[in-house]
Design a protein that fits this description.
heterodimer; A: 265 residues; alpha+beta; Beta-Lactamase; six-stranded antiparallel β-sheet; five-stranded antiparallel β-sheet; 5 helices; 26% strand; B: Arc Repressor Mutant, subunit A; 2 domains; 11 helices; 65% helix; globular
Chain lengths: 265, 279
Protein backbone atom coordinates (compact mmCIF):
# COMPACT_ATOMS: atom_id res chain seq x y z
CA UNK A 1 0.00 0.00 0.00
CA UNK A 2 1.16 3.53 -0.66
CA UNK A 3 1.10 6.57 1.55
CA UNK A 4 -1.70 7.17 3.95
CA UNK A 5 -4.20 9.80 2.92
CA UNK A 6 -5.50 12.19 5.50
CA UNK A 7 -9.18 11.64 5.00
CA UNK A 8 -12.00 11.27 2.60
CA UNK A 9 -12.80 14.79 1.50
CA UNK A 10 -15.06 14.76 -1.52
CA UNK A 11 -15.49 11.00 -1.42
CA UNK A 12 -19.26 11.29 -1.20
CA UNK A 13 -19.41 11.42 -5.00
CA UNK A 14 -16.89 9.24 -6.77
CA UNK A 15 -13.88 8.34 -4.65
CA UNK A 16 -10.88 9.73 -6.49
CA UNK A 17 -8.68 6.90 -5.36
CA UNK A 18 -10.71 3.85 -4.53
CA UNK A 19 -7.66 2.10 -3.20
CA UNK A 20 -6.15 4.94 -1.19
CA UNK A 21 -5.61 4.10 2.46
CA UNK A 22 -7.88 5.99 4.81
CA UNK A 23 -7.96 6.57 8.54
CA UNK A 24 -10.28 4.91 11.01
CA UNK A 25 -11.70 8.32 11.90
CA UNK A 26 -12.57 8.99 8.26
CA UNK A 27 -14.28 5.63 7.84
CA UNK A 28 -16.21 6.01 11.11
CA UNK A 29 -17.36 9.43 9.89
CA UNK A 30 -18.52 8.01 6.57
CA UNK A 31 -20.39 5.18 8.26
CA UNK A 32 -22.06 7.77 10.45
CA UNK A 33 -22.99 9.86 7.39
CA UNK A 34 -24.42 6.78 5.67
CA UNK A 35 -26.74 6.06 8.59
CA UNK A 36 -27.47 9.73 9.26
CA UNK A 37 -28.88 9.87 5.75
CA UNK A 38 -31.26 7.05 6.70
CA UNK A 39 -32.05 8.81 9.97
CA UNK A 40 -33.02 11.84 7.85
CA UNK A 41 -35.68 9.61 6.27
CA UNK A 42 -36.86 8.62 9.72
CA UNK A 43 -36.90 12.23 10.90
CA UNK A 44 -38.88 13.40 7.85
CA UNK A 45 -41.38 10.62 8.44
CA UNK A 46 -41.62 11.56 12.08
CA UNK A 47 -42.33 15.22 11.20
CA UNK A 48 -45.12 14.11 8.85
CA UNK A 49 -46.62 11.83 11.49
CA UNK A 50 -46.58 14.49 14.20
CA UNK A 51 -48.15 17.05 11.85
CA UNK A 52 -50.78 14.53 10.84
CA UNK A 53 -51.65 13.42 14.37
CA UNK A 54 -51.78 16.98 15.66
CA UNK A 55 -54.19 17.85 12.84
CA UNK A 56 -56.50 14.92 13.45
CA UNK A 57 -59.26 15.24 15.97
CA UNK A 58 -58.33 13.04 18.87
CA UNK A 59 -61.22 11.34 20.54
CA UNK A 60 -64.03 9.13 19.47
CA UNK A 61 -63.55 9.85 15.78
CA UNK A 62 -59.86 9.57 15.45
CA UNK A 63 -57.20 9.09 14.62
CA UNK A 64 -58.10 6.09 12.49
CA UNK A 65 -56.14 3.96 10.02
CA UNK A 66 -57.61 5.86 7.07
CA UNK A 67 -56.02 9.06 8.38
CA UNK A 68 -52.58 7.50 8.00
CA UNK A 69 -53.06 7.24 4.24
CA UNK A 70 -51.98 10.88 4.13
CA UNK A 71 -48.46 9.67 5.01
CA UNK A 72 -48.17 7.60 1.87
CA UNK A 73 -46.93 10.16 -0.67
CA UNK A 74 -44.07 11.04 1.67
CA UNK A 75 -43.26 7.41 2.41
CA UNK A 76 -43.26 6.50 -1.27
CA UNK A 77 -41.06 9.47 -2.13
CA UNK A 78 -38.54 8.53 0.54
CA UNK A 79 -38.38 4.93 -0.64
CA UNK A 80 -37.71 6.18 -4.14
CA UNK A 81 -35.16 8.78 -3.05
CA UNK A 82 -32.90 6.59 -0.96
CA UNK A 83 -31.64 3.36 -2.43
CA UNK A 84 -30.40 2.20 0.95
CA UNK A 85 -33.90 2.35 2.46
CA UNK A 86 -36.02 -0.73 1.69
CA UNK A 87 -38.90 -0.10 4.06
CA UNK A 88 -40.27 2.94 5.81
CA UNK A 89 -43.28 3.85 7.85
CA UNK A 90 -45.07 4.46 11.09
CA UNK A 91 -45.57 1.75 13.70
CA UNK A 92 -48.34 2.87 16.01
CA UNK A 93 -48.39 2.38 19.72
CA UNK A 94 -51.25 -0.01 20.53
CA UNK A 95 -54.32 2.02 21.42
CA UNK A 96 -53.36 5.08 19.40
CA UNK A 97 -55.89 4.48 16.65
CA UNK A 98 -59.55 4.30 17.52
CA UNK A 99 -60.60 1.79 14.86
CA UNK A 100 -57.94 -0.91 15.37
CA UNK A 101 -55.90 -2.14 18.34
CA UNK A 102 -52.58 -1.87 16.49
CA UNK A 103 -51.31 -0.87 13.10
CA UNK A 104 -48.24 -0.55 10.91
CA UNK A 105 -48.44 1.97 8.09
CA UNK A 106 -45.46 0.35 6.42
CA UNK A 107 -44.28 0.46 2.85
CA UNK A 108 -41.57 -1.58 1.19
CA UNK A 109 -39.60 -1.18 -2.00
CA UNK A 110 -39.88 -4.09 -4.41
CA UNK A 111 -36.99 -5.26 -6.55
CA UNK A 112 -38.70 -3.82 -9.62
CA UNK A 113 -38.90 -0.29 -8.27
CA UNK A 114 -42.49 -0.64 -7.13
CA UNK A 115 -43.65 0.07 -3.60
CA UNK A 116 -46.09 -2.09 -1.70
CA UNK A 117 -47.76 -1.94 1.67
CA UNK A 118 -46.94 -4.47 4.35
CA UNK A 119 -50.14 -6.20 5.37
CA UNK A 120 -49.77 -8.11 8.59
CA UNK A 121 -52.25 -10.21 10.43
CA UNK A 122 -52.47 -8.30 13.69
CA UNK A 123 -55.23 -10.42 15.14
CA UNK A 124 -53.84 -12.01 18.33
CA UNK A 125 -56.46 -14.76 18.08
CA UNK A 126 -54.98 -15.76 14.83
CA UNK A 127 -51.35 -14.87 14.51
CA UNK A 128 -48.48 -15.59 16.88
CA UNK A 129 -46.74 -12.53 15.45
CA UNK A 130 -49.45 -9.97 16.08
CA UNK A 131 -47.70 -8.27 18.99
CA UNK A 132 -44.79 -6.21 17.71
CA UNK A 133 -44.17 -4.21 20.87
CA UNK A 134 -41.21 -6.36 22.03
CA UNK A 135 -39.00 -5.74 18.99
CA UNK A 136 -35.93 -3.57 19.62
CA UNK A 137 -36.96 -1.05 16.96
CA UNK A 138 -40.05 -0.40 19.04
CA UNK A 139 -38.86 -0.77 22.63
CA UNK A 140 -35.59 1.17 22.31
CA UNK A 141 -37.13 4.49 21.17
CA UNK A 142 -40.13 3.98 23.46
CA UNK A 143 -38.06 3.31 26.56
CA UNK A 144 -35.23 5.79 25.97
CA UNK A 145 -37.04 8.57 24.12
CA UNK A 146 -34.08 8.50 21.73
CA UNK A 147 -33.63 7.37 18.18
CA UNK A 148 -32.14 3.90 17.85
CA UNK A 149 -30.53 1.39 15.52
CA UNK A 150 -31.93 -2.10 15.95
CA UNK A 151 -29.99 -5.05 14.60
CA UNK A 152 -28.46 -6.56 12.66
CA UNK A 153 -31.32 -9.03 13.13
CA UNK A 154 -33.44 -11.43 11.09
CA UNK A 155 -36.59 -9.50 10.33
CA UNK A 156 -39.07 -12.35 9.99
CA UNK A 157 -41.96 -10.02 10.70
CA UNK A 158 -41.71 -7.67 7.73
CA UNK A 159 -39.11 -8.61 5.15
CA UNK A 160 -37.43 -11.98 5.92
CA UNK A 161 -34.20 -10.08 5.45
CA UNK A 162 -31.18 -9.64 7.66
CA UNK A 163 -31.65 -5.98 8.50
CA UNK A 164 -30.89 -2.86 10.41
CA UNK A 165 -33.93 -0.87 11.47
CA UNK A 166 -33.46 2.77 12.36
CA UNK A 167 -36.26 4.24 14.40
CA UNK A 168 -37.25 7.30 16.39
CA UNK A 169 -40.02 7.84 18.92
CA UNK A 170 -43.11 9.79 17.94
CA UNK A 171 -44.61 11.79 20.77
CA UNK A 172 -47.79 13.82 20.46
CA UNK A 173 -49.09 15.87 23.34
CA UNK A 174 -46.59 14.24 25.68
CA UNK A 175 -47.90 10.79 24.81
CA UNK A 176 -45.86 8.10 23.07
CA UNK A 177 -47.67 7.48 19.77
CA UNK A 178 -45.36 4.94 18.18
CA UNK A 179 -42.16 4.94 16.15
CA UNK A 180 -41.12 6.27 12.79
CA UNK A 181 -38.71 3.81 11.24
CA UNK A 182 -36.75 2.78 8.17
CA UNK A 183 -35.28 -0.59 7.20
CA UNK A 184 -31.86 -1.08 5.68
CA UNK A 185 -31.13 -4.59 4.46
CA UNK A 186 -27.73 -5.67 5.64
CA UNK A 187 -26.57 -6.67 2.17
CA UNK A 188 -27.22 -3.08 1.05
CA UNK A 189 -25.49 -1.67 4.10
CA UNK A 190 -22.54 -3.93 3.41
CA UNK A 191 -22.36 -2.74 -0.19
CA UNK A 192 -22.38 0.85 1.07
CA UNK A 193 -19.65 0.51 3.69
CA UNK A 194 -17.39 -2.31 2.49
CA UNK A 195 -15.49 -0.21 -0.07
CA UNK A 196 -14.58 2.07 2.84
CA UNK A 197 -13.64 -0.70 5.24
CA UNK A 198 -11.42 -2.28 2.61
CA UNK A 199 -9.37 0.91 2.35
CA UNK A 200 -8.32 0.70 5.98
CA UNK A 201 -4.76 -0.52 6.52
CA UNK A 202 -5.86 -3.42 8.75
CA UNK A 203 -8.86 -5.75 8.71
CA UNK A 204 -11.89 -4.06 10.19
CA UNK A 205 -15.35 -4.76 11.51
CA UNK A 206 -18.25 -2.65 12.58
CA UNK A 207 -20.24 -3.75 15.62
CA UNK A 208 -23.44 -2.55 17.23
CA UNK A 209 -23.86 -1.64 20.89
CA UNK A 210 -24.17 -5.35 21.78
CA UNK A 211 -21.02 -6.29 19.90
CA UNK A 212 -22.91 -7.82 16.96
CA UNK A 213 -20.94 -7.49 13.72
CA UNK A 214 -22.75 -5.40 11.09
CA UNK A 215 -20.01 -5.37 8.45
CA UNK A 216 -16.56 -6.86 8.33
CA UNK A 217 -13.45 -7.34 6.22
CA UNK A 218 -12.20 -9.86 8.75
CA UNK A 219 -13.08 -13.51 8.09
CA UNK A 220 -12.67 -14.18 11.81
CA UNK A 221 -15.42 -11.69 12.65
CA UNK A 222 -18.29 -12.56 10.36
CA UNK A 223 -21.45 -10.49 10.03
CA UNK A 224 -23.95 -11.57 12.66
CA UNK A 225 -21.37 -12.96 15.07
CA UNK A 226 -20.68 -11.42 18.45
CA UNK A 227 -17.42 -9.69 19.23
CA UNK A 228 -16.17 -10.09 22.75
CA UNK A 229 -14.54 -6.92 23.79
CA UNK A 230 -15.04 -3.70 25.61
CA UNK A 231 -18.46 -2.59 26.80
CA UNK A 232 -19.67 -1.43 23.42
CA UNK A 233 -22.86 0.09 24.81
CA UNK A 234 -20.78 2.30 27.10
CA UNK A 235 -18.43 3.11 24.24
CA UNK A 236 -21.32 4.18 22.03
CA UNK A 237 -22.62 6.44 24.77
CA UNK A 238 -19.22 7.81 25.73
CA UNK A 239 -16.71 10.21 24.20
CA UNK A 240 -15.40 9.58 20.72
CA UNK A 241 -11.72 9.34 21.58
CA UNK A 242 -10.29 6.46 19.63
CA UNK A 243 -8.95 3.90 22.01
CA UNK A 244 -7.45 0.49 21.91
CA UNK A 245 -8.68 -2.93 22.89
CA UNK A 246 -6.24 -5.80 22.62
CA UNK A 247 -4.79 -5.59 19.14
CA UNK A 248 -7.69 -3.47 17.90
CA UNK A 249 -8.07 0.25 17.45
CA UNK A 250 -11.53 1.39 18.42
CA UNK A 251 -13.45 4.22 16.75
CA UNK A 252 -16.86 5.49 17.65
CA UNK A 253 -19.22 6.53 14.83
CA UNK A 254 -20.37 9.69 16.59
CA UNK A 255 -24.12 9.88 16.86
CA UNK A 256 -24.90 6.40 15.57
CA UNK A 257 -24.55 3.39 17.86
CA UNK A 258 -21.89 1.55 15.90
CA UNK A 259 -18.24 1.01 16.75
CA UNK A 260 -15.45 0.48 14.23
CA UNK A 261 -12.71 -1.96 15.20
CA UNK A 262 -9.53 -2.04 13.14
CA UNK A 263 -6.77 -4.55 13.67
CA UNK A 264 -3.14 -3.55 13.57
CA UNK A 265 -1.40 -4.64 10.41
CA UNK B 1 -56.39 -19.51 -24.74
CA UNK B 2 -59.55 -18.02 -23.35
CA UNK B 3 -61.78 -15.74 -25.42
CA UNK B 4 -62.67 -13.52 -22.45
CA UNK B 5 -60.04 -10.86 -22.18
CA UNK B 6 -58.65 -9.99 -18.85
CA UNK B 7 -59.84 -6.40 -18.93
CA UNK B 8 -63.48 -7.25 -19.31
CA UNK B 9 -65.09 -6.39 -16.05
CA UNK B 10 -68.45 -5.28 -14.81
CA UNK B 11 -71.83 -5.93 -16.34
CA UNK B 12 -70.45 -6.33 -19.86
CA UNK B 13 -68.07 -8.99 -18.63
CA UNK B 14 -70.85 -10.89 -16.92
CA UNK B 15 -72.86 -10.90 -20.15
CA UNK B 16 -69.92 -12.10 -22.18
CA UNK B 17 -69.35 -14.86 -19.61
CA UNK B 18 -72.33 -16.56 -21.22
CA UNK B 19 -70.14 -17.13 -24.23
CA UNK B 20 -67.12 -18.54 -22.42
CA UNK B 21 -66.22 -22.13 -23.18
CA UNK B 22 -68.43 -24.74 -21.60
CA UNK B 23 -65.63 -26.08 -19.45
CA UNK B 24 -65.74 -22.91 -17.36
CA UNK B 25 -67.24 -24.79 -14.42
CA UNK B 26 -64.36 -27.23 -14.49
CA UNK B 27 -61.99 -24.29 -14.62
CA UNK B 28 -63.60 -22.74 -11.55
CA UNK B 29 -63.20 -26.04 -9.73
CA UNK B 30 -59.61 -26.31 -10.85
CA UNK B 31 -58.82 -22.85 -9.56
CA UNK B 32 -60.63 -23.52 -6.28
CA UNK B 33 -58.70 -26.75 -5.83
CA UNK B 34 -55.38 -25.16 -6.74
CA UNK B 35 -55.74 -22.17 -4.43
CA UNK B 36 -57.56 -24.13 -1.73
CA UNK B 37 -54.82 -26.77 -1.55
CA UNK B 38 -52.16 -24.09 -1.49
CA UNK B 39 -53.88 -22.42 1.45
CA UNK B 40 -54.56 -25.65 3.34
CA UNK B 41 -50.98 -26.78 2.80
CA UNK B 42 -49.66 -23.44 3.92
CA UNK B 43 -48.04 -22.61 0.60
CA UNK B 44 -50.02 -19.41 0.76
CA UNK B 45 -49.68 -18.05 4.22
CA UNK B 46 -52.31 -16.65 6.47
CA UNK B 47 -53.07 -13.01 5.83
CA UNK B 48 -51.17 -13.01 2.56
CA UNK B 49 -52.64 -10.80 -0.11
CA UNK B 50 -53.42 -12.53 -3.38
CA UNK B 51 -52.42 -10.69 -6.55
CA UNK B 52 -55.05 -8.43 -8.10
CA UNK B 53 -57.86 -10.14 -9.99
CA UNK B 54 -56.57 -9.48 -13.48
CA UNK B 55 -53.00 -10.40 -12.57
CA UNK B 56 -54.06 -13.58 -10.79
CA UNK B 57 -56.37 -14.54 -13.65
CA UNK B 58 -53.54 -14.06 -16.11
CA UNK B 59 -51.15 -16.13 -13.99
CA UNK B 60 -53.64 -18.99 -13.75
CA UNK B 61 -54.61 -18.66 -17.40
CA UNK B 62 -58.30 -18.14 -16.72
CA UNK B 63 -60.71 -15.27 -17.31
CA UNK B 64 -61.47 -12.81 -14.56
CA UNK B 65 -65.02 -14.11 -14.54
CA UNK B 66 -63.80 -17.62 -13.79
CA UNK B 67 -61.43 -16.29 -11.18
CA UNK B 68 -64.23 -14.35 -9.46
CA UNK B 69 -66.38 -17.44 -9.26
CA UNK B 70 -63.46 -19.35 -7.78
CA UNK B 71 -62.81 -16.59 -5.27
CA UNK B 72 -66.48 -16.66 -4.34
CA UNK B 73 -66.26 -20.39 -3.65
CA UNK B 74 -63.09 -19.89 -1.60
CA UNK B 75 -64.80 -17.14 0.41
CA UNK B 76 -67.67 -19.49 1.11
CA UNK B 77 -65.17 -22.06 2.37
CA UNK B 78 -63.63 -19.38 4.57
CA UNK B 79 -60.24 -19.61 2.89
CA UNK B 80 -60.26 -16.13 1.39
CA UNK B 81 -61.45 -12.81 2.72
CA UNK B 82 -62.06 -9.92 0.40
CA UNK B 83 -61.83 -6.36 1.59
CA UNK B 84 -63.09 -3.44 -0.43
CA UNK B 85 -61.62 -0.03 -0.88
CA UNK B 86 -58.16 1.32 -0.44
CA UNK B 87 -55.67 -1.28 0.67
CA UNK B 88 -58.34 -3.83 -0.18
CA UNK B 89 -58.07 -7.05 -2.12
CA UNK B 90 -58.31 -10.76 -1.49
CA UNK B 91 -56.46 -12.21 1.46
CA UNK B 92 -55.70 -15.74 2.49
CA UNK B 93 -57.50 -16.77 5.65
CA UNK B 94 -56.66 -19.95 7.46
CA UNK B 95 -59.61 -21.69 9.08
CA UNK B 96 -59.67 -21.03 12.78
CA UNK B 97 -58.99 -23.80 15.27
CA UNK B 98 -59.20 -26.71 12.91
CA UNK B 99 -61.42 -29.35 14.39
CA UNK B 100 -59.64 -32.39 15.67
CA UNK B 101 -61.10 -34.77 13.14
CA UNK B 102 -60.01 -32.50 10.36
CA UNK B 103 -56.50 -32.61 11.78
CA UNK B 104 -56.59 -36.36 12.07
CA UNK B 105 -57.59 -36.48 8.44
CA UNK B 106 -54.55 -34.39 7.66
CA UNK B 107 -52.36 -36.64 9.79
CA UNK B 108 -53.49 -39.75 7.97
CA UNK B 109 -52.41 -38.10 4.71
CA UNK B 110 -48.87 -38.59 5.99
CA UNK B 111 -47.20 -41.97 6.03
CA UNK B 112 -45.09 -42.72 9.10
CA UNK B 113 -42.03 -42.60 6.85
CA UNK B 114 -42.97 -39.10 5.71
CA UNK B 115 -43.56 -37.99 9.27
CA UNK B 116 -40.22 -39.42 10.33
CA UNK B 117 -38.53 -37.60 7.45
CA UNK B 118 -40.32 -34.35 8.28
CA UNK B 119 -39.10 -34.74 11.85
CA UNK B 120 -35.54 -35.37 10.65
CA UNK B 121 -35.65 -32.23 8.54
CA UNK B 122 -37.09 -30.15 11.34
CA UNK B 123 -34.59 -31.53 13.89
CA UNK B 124 -31.75 -30.73 11.52
CA UNK B 125 -32.89 -27.13 11.09
CA UNK B 126 -33.73 -26.48 14.75
CA UNK B 127 -30.59 -28.29 15.91
CA UNK B 128 -28.39 -26.19 13.65
CA UNK B 129 -30.27 -23.06 14.69
CA UNK B 130 -29.72 -23.83 18.38
CA UNK B 131 -26.04 -24.60 17.80
CA UNK B 132 -25.51 -21.25 16.06
CA UNK B 133 -27.75 -19.34 18.44
CA UNK B 134 -25.63 -20.49 21.38
CA UNK B 135 -22.68 -18.75 19.76
CA UNK B 136 -24.51 -15.65 18.58
CA UNK B 137 -27.36 -14.85 20.91
CA UNK B 138 -27.57 -11.56 22.70
CA UNK B 139 -29.94 -10.56 25.45
CA UNK B 140 -32.57 -9.30 22.99
CA UNK B 141 -32.87 -12.70 21.33
CA UNK B 142 -33.07 -14.46 24.68
CA UNK B 143 -35.89 -12.21 25.81
CA UNK B 144 -37.99 -13.22 22.81
CA UNK B 145 -37.37 -16.92 23.41
CA UNK B 146 -38.23 -16.62 27.10
CA UNK B 147 -41.40 -14.70 26.27
CA UNK B 148 -42.46 -17.45 23.88
CA UNK B 149 -41.95 -20.26 26.38
CA UNK B 150 -43.91 -18.31 28.97
CA UNK B 151 -46.71 -17.83 26.45
CA UNK B 152 -46.56 -21.50 25.50
CA UNK B 153 -47.00 -22.52 29.12
CA UNK B 154 -50.02 -20.26 29.47
CA UNK B 155 -51.73 -20.82 26.13
CA UNK B 156 -55.04 -22.51 26.75
CA UNK B 157 -55.90 -24.10 23.45
CA UNK B 158 -53.88 -26.43 21.20
CA UNK B 159 -53.99 -24.06 18.25
CA UNK B 160 -52.45 -21.21 20.21
CA UNK B 161 -49.90 -23.60 21.70
CA UNK B 162 -48.95 -24.84 18.27
CA UNK B 163 -48.51 -21.28 16.96
CA UNK B 164 -46.26 -20.29 19.83
CA UNK B 165 -44.35 -23.58 19.65
CA UNK B 166 -43.65 -22.79 16.01
CA UNK B 167 -42.76 -19.21 16.78
CA UNK B 168 -40.16 -20.37 19.30
CA UNK B 169 -38.35 -22.31 16.59
CA UNK B 170 -38.57 -19.38 14.18
CA UNK B 171 -37.10 -17.15 16.89
CA UNK B 172 -34.37 -19.70 17.55
CA UNK B 173 -33.38 -19.53 13.89
CA UNK B 174 -33.50 -15.74 14.03
CA UNK B 175 -31.28 -15.87 17.13
CA UNK B 176 -28.86 -17.90 15.01
CA UNK B 177 -28.72 -14.76 12.80
CA UNK B 178 -29.66 -16.86 9.79
CA UNK B 179 -32.38 -15.62 7.42
CA UNK B 180 -32.16 -18.92 5.54
CA UNK B 181 -32.72 -21.09 8.60
CA UNK B 182 -35.47 -18.70 9.68
CA UNK B 183 -37.24 -19.03 6.34
CA UNK B 184 -36.77 -22.78 6.55
CA UNK B 185 -38.38 -22.84 10.01
CA UNK B 186 -41.28 -20.70 8.78
CA UNK B 187 -41.79 -23.14 5.89
CA UNK B 188 -41.56 -26.16 8.21
CA UNK B 189 -44.14 -24.63 10.53
CA UNK B 190 -46.67 -24.40 7.71
CA UNK B 191 -46.37 -28.18 7.37
CA UNK B 192 -45.99 -29.20 10.96
CA UNK B 193 -48.05 -26.47 12.66
CA UNK B 194 -51.47 -28.01 12.14
CA UNK B 195 -50.21 -31.47 13.10
CA UNK B 196 -48.65 -30.20 16.32
CA UNK B 197 -52.07 -29.17 17.57
CA UNK B 198 -52.79 -32.88 17.91
CA UNK B 199 -50.01 -33.53 20.40
CA UNK B 200 -50.50 -30.27 22.30
CA UNK B 201 -54.00 -31.08 23.52
CA UNK B 202 -52.49 -33.02 26.40
CA UNK B 203 -51.57 -30.63 29.23
CA UNK B 204 -49.10 -33.02 30.81
CA UNK B 205 -47.25 -33.22 27.52
CA UNK B 206 -47.42 -29.42 27.28
CA UNK B 207 -45.48 -29.29 30.55
CA UNK B 208 -42.84 -31.57 29.07
CA UNK B 209 -42.62 -29.45 25.91
CA UNK B 210 -42.28 -26.25 27.93
CA UNK B 211 -39.52 -27.76 30.07
CA UNK B 212 -37.66 -28.97 27.00
CA UNK B 213 -37.81 -25.48 25.48
CA UNK B 214 -36.61 -23.89 28.69
CA UNK B 215 -33.66 -26.27 28.68
CA UNK B 216 -32.80 -25.15 25.14
CA UNK B 217 -32.85 -21.52 26.29
CA UNK B 218 -30.56 -22.32 29.20
CA UNK B 219 -28.05 -24.03 26.92
CA UNK B 220 -28.17 -21.13 24.47
CA UNK B 221 -27.70 -18.67 27.31
CA UNK B 222 -24.75 -20.71 28.62
CA UNK B 223 -23.23 -20.63 25.12
CA UNK B 224 -23.16 -24.44 25.30
CA UNK B 225 -23.66 -25.00 21.59
CA UNK B 226 -23.48 -28.79 21.53
CA UNK B 227 -25.93 -29.12 24.39
CA UNK B 228 -28.24 -26.56 22.77
CA UNK B 229 -28.20 -28.51 19.53
CA UNK B 230 -28.95 -31.87 21.06
CA UNK B 231 -31.68 -30.47 23.31
CA UNK B 232 -33.37 -28.74 20.36
CA UNK B 233 -33.14 -31.91 18.30
CA UNK B 234 -34.62 -34.01 21.08
CA UNK B 235 -37.37 -31.46 21.57
CA UNK B 236 -38.42 -31.85 17.94
CA UNK B 237 -37.92 -35.61 17.91
CA UNK B 238 -40.08 -36.09 21.01
CA UNK B 239 -42.97 -34.20 19.41
CA UNK B 240 -42.63 -36.08 16.16
CA UNK B 241 -42.50 -39.41 17.97
CA UNK B 242 -45.80 -38.56 19.64
CA UNK B 243 -47.26 -37.61 16.28
CA UNK B 244 -46.16 -40.90 14.76
CA UNK B 245 -47.65 -42.77 17.72
CA UNK B 246 -50.91 -40.93 17.06
CA UNK B 247 -50.64 -41.73 13.38
CA UNK B 248 -50.19 -45.42 14.11
CA UNK B 249 -53.15 -45.34 16.47
CA UNK B 250 -55.17 -43.35 13.98
CA UNK B 251 -54.93 -46.14 11.41
CA UNK B 252 -56.55 -48.73 13.67
CA UNK B 253 -59.04 -46.53 15.53
CA UNK B 254 -61.27 -43.97 13.92
CA UNK B 255 -59.89 -41.46 16.34
CA UNK B 256 -56.98 -41.25 18.66
CA UNK B 257 -57.50 -39.55 21.98
CA UNK B 258 -60.95 -38.08 22.49
CA UNK B 259 -61.48 -34.87 20.61
CA UNK B 260 -61.32 -31.88 22.89
CA UNK B 261 -63.15 -29.40 20.74
CA UNK B 262 -65.93 -31.35 19.17
CA UNK B 263 -66.04 -32.55 15.62
CA UNK B 264 -67.37 -29.86 13.39
CA UNK B 265 -65.25 -31.17 10.58
CA UNK B 266 -64.42 -29.18 7.57
CA UNK B 267 -67.38 -26.88 7.92
CA UNK B 268 -65.91 -25.10 10.90
CA UNK B 269 -64.27 -22.15 9.29
CA UNK B 270 -63.43 -18.77 10.51
CA UNK B 271 -65.88 -16.18 9.30
CA UNK B 272 -64.81 -13.34 11.53
CA UNK B 273 -62.99 -10.58 9.76
CA UNK B 274 -59.54 -9.92 11.02
CA UNK B 275 -59.17 -6.98 13.30
CA UNK B 276 -58.07 -3.79 11.70
CA UNK B 277 -60.34 -4.12 8.73
CA UNK B 278 -63.93 -3.46 9.56
CA UNK B 279 -66.18 -4.41 6.72
Amino acid sequence: MGGRSTGLVGAADTPPEATAVVTGEAVAARVRDTLEDVFDTVAETRVDIVALLEGVSVGEHGPVTADLAALRPGLHARLAARALVSGVGFVTAPGLLTDVPAWLEWWQAGTDGTVRPLLLDLDPEHSAYSDYTHWDWFTLPRDTGQRAVAGPYVDYLCSDEYSLTLSAPVTVGGRFAGVAAADVYLRHFEAAVMPLLKRLPGSAHLVNARGRVAASTDPHHLVGSLTKGPDFAALVAGPSEPGRFGGLRVYRCDGVPLVLLVSDD
Amino acid sequence: MNPVRRDEKGAGGARRAVFTPVDTRARVDAVVRRLGDAIELGLLSDGEQLPGESELAAQLGVSTVTLREALMALRQRGLVTTRRGRGGGSFVTLPEGPAEDRLFARLTDWSTEELRDLGDHWAAVSGAAAWLAAQRTDIGDLRQLIRSVDELAQADDPTARSRVYGRFHVELAAAAQSPRLTREEVALQTEVGALLCLVLTDTSYLKEVTDRHRAVISAVQDEAEDRARSLAERCVQASMTRLIELRLGATSAAHGPGPEEGTHGRQEYRSRRRSGHPA
